[in-house]
Amino acid sequence: KASAYSSTWCSGSTRDGRLPPIDAKNQAEDILNSILPPREWTESGQLWVQQVSSTPATRLDVLNLQEQLDIRLQQRQARETGICPVRRELYSQCFDELIRQVTISCAERGILLLRVRDEIRMTIAAYQTLYESSVAFGMRKALQAEQGKTDMQKKIEELEEEKKDLEKTSKTN
Hints:
two-stranded antiparallel ribbon, mainly alpha, about 10% strand, rod-shaped, 4 helices, single chain
């Protein structure tokens, strides 16, 4: 008879050197709760807690996820190209759901996807910082150029006045 749970054996100090199997479902739930912590809120004086589902996804669930992503992208008018915070948020939510689905079937694969997600987020944050820094640098340079232009115009006016004064003195001499 096939079991709905997979068993994980670890080294230990029992008679045969092994511990009893770990309940894979509880392990997946623990990992899911650490990846996507339960949401807590108070409504009408009652504390509500919403946990991530540990129900495995079917092929139909994945197709529905894809369809919902497309619908939400259109509803929220996400740009198809370039930097779009709306698109990034929706894809991030979709990726979190995919991580959830993969973690249920294989915790190690889910944890690896979580690492990939976190690395991508850090890279995007670094690019965002670099972009903001370069925009600020460009603005400073534009202001410096404008100030330099104003200074040059003043210098030209001064030199033209000096030229006129010199022409007047040369004519009188």
